[in-house]
Amino acid sequence: MGETIEKRLSDLGITLPTPAAPVANYVAFSRTGNLLLTSGQLPLRDGKLTSTGLLGRDVDVAVGQEAAKYCAVNILAQARAALGDLEKIRRVVKITVFVASAPDFVEQHLVANGASDLLAAVLGEKGKHARSAVGSASLPLNAPVEIEAILEVE
């Protein structure tokens, strides 16, 4: 993959937004050594949630995957804000995907694929990562998905 990360984003029709600013007493990202950790990112597109509600009750897997994709887009936006250049990402180490789920919903892993697939498409081998997909009773602002990431960076 000789293309730049920005070119792959453009080819996918994705423009990274200005990253969301923290709304409480925390920071959007934290760097220690060669690790960059993001705070949980919601599925915001144009400043609004892409969807709301619980998976398995209000939201189906396809809509959840789209939400997870936008969480990953916002992770990349935070990484660009932290690093100045996405080419400084060596690899995505791990993502933790929180899925707001109805009690009987058991397909969190399928929802998480929305983020995993986007990261692999944009970053290639550097985008392949360890992952946890966790069901949650609810998430901030009634978001269906929230994702945090650990990145190895230059």
Automatic annotation (TrEMBL):
InterPro entries reported for this sequence: Endoribo_LPSP/chorism_mut-like, RutC-like_sf
Any matching Pfam family: YjgF_endoribonc
Record-linked CDD domains: YjgF_YER057c_UK114_like_1
SUPFAM superfamilies per the UniProt record, alphabetical: YjgF-like
Residue intervals of the Endoribonuclease L-PSP/chorismate mutase-like domain: 6-143
Protein name in UniProt: RidA family protein
Annotated organism of origin: Mesorhizobium retamae
